[in-house]
Amino acid sequence: MAAVTLEAVHKSYGKNHIVRGVSLTVADGSFLSLLGPSGCGKTTTLRMIAGLERLDSGRIAIGGGEVDGPAAHVPPERRGLGMVFQSYAVWPHRTVAENVAYPLERQGLNRSERDARIREALAQVRLEAFADRQPHALSGGQLQRVALARALVGRPKVLLLDEPLSNLDAALKEELRAEIAALRARLGTTMIAVTHDQAEALALADQVAVMRAGVLEQVATPQALYAEPNSPFVAGFVGGANVLDGEVRGGAFVLGGVRLELPTAVGDGPCTLVLRPEDAVLEPTGTLPLAARLFLGATTEYRLQLGDVALRVLGPPHPFAQPGTTVGLTLRAARVFPRELR
Amino acid sequence: MKRSALTAALLAPLVIFALLPLAVLVVRGLRSPDAWGLLVDPATFAALRGTTITSAGAAAIAFGLGLPLGLLLGRTDLPWSRAWRALFALPAAVPPFIFAMGWQLLANPRTGLLNTALHLHVDIYSSTGIAFVLGLSALPLVLLPTLASLEQVDAAWEEAARLAGAGPWRTLRDVALPLALPAAGSGAALAFLSSASAFGVPYLLGVTASPPIPTLTTRIWAQVLLGAHGLDQAGALALWLLGLSTLVLALAQRLGKRGRVSLASGKGARRTRLPLGPSRVAVSATTGLVAFVLVVLPLLVVVVASLQKNFGTFDAFTTAHWARLSHDTRTLGAFGQSALLALGTGVIVTGAGLALAWARSRLGQPFGAVAWLAAWPYAIPGTVLALGLILAFSLDTRVVLFDSVALVLALMNTSWLLLVAFSVRHLALGLRAARDGLERVDRSLAEAARLSGANRLRAFLDGTLPQLRGPLVAGFTLAVLASLTELTMATLLLPPGTDLLGTLLFELMSYADPAGAAVLACAVVAVVLLGQAAIAAAAPRKVAS
Amino acid sequence: MRWLCALLLLAGCRIERVSPSAGAAEGGDEPQGDLWVYTSMYRHVVDALDPVIAKALPKVKVHWFQGGSEKVMARLEAELAAGGTQADVVLTSDPFFYQRFKDEGRWLRYVSPNAVRVSRQLIDPDGAFTAVRLSTMVMIRGKDAAAPESFGALREPPFKDQVALGDALTSGTAFTWAVFTESARGDPWFRMLRLNGARVAGGNAAVLQKVQSGEAKVGVVLLENALKAKAEGAPIEIAWPADGAVVIPGDAAIFSTTRHRRAAEGLIDVLLSPEGQDVIVRLGDMHGVDPRAAGPRGEPGVEGLLVRSQPWTEGMRESGAQTGEQVKRRFREAFSQ
Ligand SMILES: Nc1ncnc2c1ncn2[C@@H]1O[C@H](COP(=O)(O)OP(=O)(O)OP(=O)(O)O)[C@@H](O)[C@H]1O
Ligand SMILES: [Mg+2]
Prior knowledge:
The structure holds 3 protein chains of 3 kinds.
Chain A: E1 4-13, E2 16-26, E3 31-35, H1 42-50, E4 57-62, E5 65-68, E6 81-84, H2 96-107, H3 111-124, H4 140-153, E7 158-162, H5 170-187, E8 190-194, H6 198-204, E9 207-212, E10 215-220, H7 222-227, H8 232-238, E11 242-249, E12 252-255, E13 258-261, E14 269-275, E15 280-295, E16 300-306, E17 309-315, E18 326-331, E19 335-338
Parallel strand pairs in A: 3-8, 3-9, 6-7, 7-8
Antiparallel strand pairs in A: 1-2, 1-4, 4-5, 9-10, 11-12, 11-14, 12-13, 14-19, 15-16, 15-18, 16-17
Helix pairs in contact in A: 2-3, 2-4, 3-4
Chain B: H1 3-31, H2 35-39, H3 42-75, H4 81-89, H5 96-107, H6 113-117, H7 127-150, H8 155-163, H9 168-196, H10 200-206, H11 216-224, H12 230-256, H13 280-306, H14 320-327, H15 329-363, H16 370-379, H17 382-393, E1 397-401, E2 405-409, H18 415-438, H19 444-451, H20 456-464, H21 469-484, H22 488-493, H23 501-510, H24 514-538
Antiparallel strand pairs in B: 1-2
Chain C: H1 2-11, E1 13-17, E2 33-39, H2 43-56, E3 60-66, H3 69-82, E4 89-92, H4 95-103, E5 107-108, E6 130-142, E7 163-165, H5 172-185, H6 189-195, E8 199-200, H7 204-212, E9 218-222, H8 223-231, E10 236-239, E11 246-255, H9 261-272, H10 274-284, E12 287-288, H11 302-307, H12 314-335
Parallel strand pairs in C: 2-3, 2-4, 7-8, 7-9
Antiparallel strand pairs in C: 4-11, 5-11, 6-9, 6-10, 6-11, 6-12
């Protein structure tokens, strides 16, 4: 239906440069997850796509036509979008059904069509029974689902989701993710979702964009991002990898007097080591103090002490590894970045 | 519509009807002989001082009473809060000079009932007395907006404070109070303006003080009466009031900046009432006492006095004054006319205030200055505004079509001019209400509507406007009540053959019939109370905020 | 939106067409047309005058603007400043205002044939204005209070802290009283009143109320207010000052800009006619100017009144109109001590 393209988009509030030269293409019908730490400019980016903020420079196109740029500014209501706001923005003066009905009213649908669509949307977010409730009598998660239903009921070309599932329990999240995926499959809606939940990002998205202080660090498929993070930041943010500043000396990473043999050859010098918790194996013998052991269900997490830095390792429940003892460590895979990149 | 066209459409009526009359007056004033000497005359400074003291006192009293009352009525489980609310809003409907009359009977130094019966020594003929009466009259200006803004506060914020270890009083102080401050503060600024522009009360109480307390309004009127250049010079004197009002608004704006937060954000606000616990009875009793002494007692005295043969003494009972008035057919007509005019004013003021506030938040300049400009007509005496309107509009504007048909825009001696006068005067009330409300509504509510396909205007109407109900109703109520019994402008601009409550009141007062005036004022109060009760009964009791 | 504005604007407009019948100039001798009268006469007096006027001038339609003398003057000033007034006739009680406008050349000269009996001191020698009614400043006292003999006695010890006066700065009648009494007693008069504890109290209604309620024992107030209050049972007595009451003529004058001269003259004739005078005396509680009319509520008629009051001289009007500002300033300064 509609691809979304951002070209060198720039936005500042006063002296604060919030979004700095973001370029991005979201293919028609694909799903982009926008990841990044709090305050990095994700919401601002979505708002610019929606037309709620004017750009300082750059251009945005939706479905091939320029909607924002030096030449044009298409107002939000004519961009054919749906959006779930981070603050929900559920109108307190309208019931749940009336909230959901609104986009259809604007599209000029007649009552019977509208009712069917509202029922469908409420069913998708599992709120059929709440149609006549006032918003002040809903839980946080229910409000969020009203916002979601309202965003998708109008069958927009592009759906912008600002943390649409953050307030839901794991099971409900799973169900709604499936609903969203089904919807996308059925209608071919292009989706851009901000999320803090990596599992969500990696599971749903065709592409993941990692943002940091207003700049896109990397845009890639989930697999590529996971396998080939192009910076310690991306690796640390996406895989939950350990990011350690140290030095390579003679094929080993040295930090706090501890040497860790690297699986691949790297030249000597100061560097940043990125090590995924699942890429290291505990050995019964060694000199690293084990500070803690956490049961996570499928796996167990170990906290090792490397000088004064902590290191997370995931593995099976080794009987030998008890807090207070010392263990050894073998690296199966690791990435080393020159220090400056950080 | 293009932006510039919109700006022009919004500004044109304001400029033509509100600023032109003032500008004409002021320009003439500054060009009149000896205007500058008059502006810095010692007598002018004495009047400026009198106005500043009494108005600041009035604003302080209205603020000091209105804010705590607002918190009590809006956020606690104080019983009968609707009834209290109606009662404390009453001073907005009663012409201030009726209150002054009541307090005169209660607290004049020689025969005041409080002084003779309770052996107190209060003297209503003093700056404090004037400030007190003006402050009470201005109480609704603070109370109603405060209540409206508190309606939008989510209970979760108070609950968070309770969990953090704050008791109910502490919670009121730390959470609700700061959130109510901006509305109460701008209300206090309006209280200052309305007091500074008041004529009746400072006149009734101020000239009798010993020595008399001069105020700018009494001085301006005295200047008008000098004839010849007096009118022009009065326009120059009004400059002081304009300056004072701008200063006060700037101050209020500065103080109010900190507390402006968006309350209606679309996460659903629950309202619970903070339980007062064991102090509930004591607090109710205190509220009752305050209401009785400040609102009921002065009106009661006026009612009782109107039932006396001889107004001002309390010995011979008669219903003659009431009977006389109820026979007068003009009274009924005046009620109808006044109600119509007041409602019209309320609608215009609310609508225009909303439009300007919206333009201010969306279009930016030049609407930033509009708040000041719109307050000017409210800050000068009604007489001056009325004279300005006469100056600006007494000549017909004639547009001749095809050499044979003339469209004559003749405002003078029509009810339209009264409507214009009342609307222009009370525009500040509508604008304040709308601004206070708009600033508290999260913009995402309108944005969600735009993404649903609504254009700018539509999104405002569907997403934002419904959240403004409370503040707008408060502003509307204040404007209607104030217009209902307005008498200064009414007497000067009344078209022939029309009667208004204000002009009847003025006539009764000047025809040495204070009892008749009292009766009429009481009748107005009764009608207002009935009206409020009817509205309360008709309006669905919405749990939602 | 734009159309709505235009519509609203149109709604406020009057549409005029040029046709031979409309706005024809006065023809013949019969007074006719729309007459605008600005007056301070009480509304019920105006209402009672309407049928009398309608009978005498059937083709004249009178539009009244009715308010206090001060308001009428303020409105006139504003309209004149804006370029012109639509008023044809003014009937207020502010002698200095009439003098001032005469000096500015605003009045049409007219002496009504009905004024033949009226005392010459009540008619402008040049015929610019004629009194049609007389208000009178007298003293009133509470029932149990001592009667002051004269205005001069108000500064004497027996009346210390007991006197209420009208505000000369804002009440026209109080101002006229102040001009008269000061010219009789000289510069320190206001200060002596003030030293004797006299209080200022707004207009006549306020003074009356203060005496009625006992807040003050003695007051200076309009006779018509006192008569009416007394008739309604107020515990007050009227005290005629030995040094002469102050008569305030309620003048009638015609603007020279009038387009309905005959109608305006006819109106003044009606006011001076026995029927007109009767309404003024009976319903207005004031004196007429026709010596044949009785006084209000059993008081002697105009001749008796003039004996009991200080005479109006032309010089008085002149000096009041020219030095009024200084009188007001002295009044203000004396009472702000
Ligand atoms: N209206 C504004 N004026 C000034 N600064 C703003 C404004 N809106 C946002 N910011 C700033 O811009 C930055 C980016 O904000 P944005 O809302 O886009 O963050 P985000 O990535 O969505 O964060 P989060 O994950 O916490 O929602 C923040 O530092 C914020 O403080
Ligand atoms: Mg965000």
